[in-house]
Amino acid sequence: MFLPFNQLPPTARVWVYQANRNFTAAEEEALAEQLTSFCQQWKAHGADLNSSFLLKYNRFVVLGVDESANMASGCSIDASVNKLKQLEAMFGLNFMDRTQVAFLKNDELFIEPLPRVKAKVAEGKITADTPTFNNLVATVDEFKSSWIIPAKVSWLKRYF
């Protein structure tokens, strides 16, 4: 069952997917429609999952499930991954590419390929305080408090 993301409790489980490119306005509208439809019918062992999503920075899909009502099962998680793969095919996106690192500068998203991050740190384009995205957050609470963090407290800290 779909519900607004802000109605998910802090303990709700989340998955963050970063696309390999920005969504166009038309794609974002179509993605919202597809994900709303998916959440409306998303089930685990025949039971509705109270779920939602966010589209952030024209680049991220955040799926959330309130597991206090029904737990997401392996099959239901597989269904969500399959949905993302369908969306990849529909829109020419890649949500599984982990070689692009997202950062914020002046509230604008910028992406650096993983092999260039060290050089960008040396150039000063990326500093210890540059906000980056922790796409491994597991709950709504972590998403709200720890999704965007300074690079120095992320896995990137080894470069500073």
Describe what you observe in this structure:
This protein has 160 residues and is α+β, with helices and mostly antiparallel strands. The chain folds into 2 domains: 5-91; 100-133 and 141-159, no CATH class. Helix content is 31%, strand content 26%. The protein has 4 helices and 9 strands. It has a 3-stranded antiparallel sheet, with helices on one face. Strands 2-3 form a two-stranded antiparallel ribbon. α1 packs antiparallel against α2. The longest helix has 18 residues, at 74-91. The termini are far apart. 25% of the residues are buried. The model has no long low-confidence stretch (mean pLDDT 96).
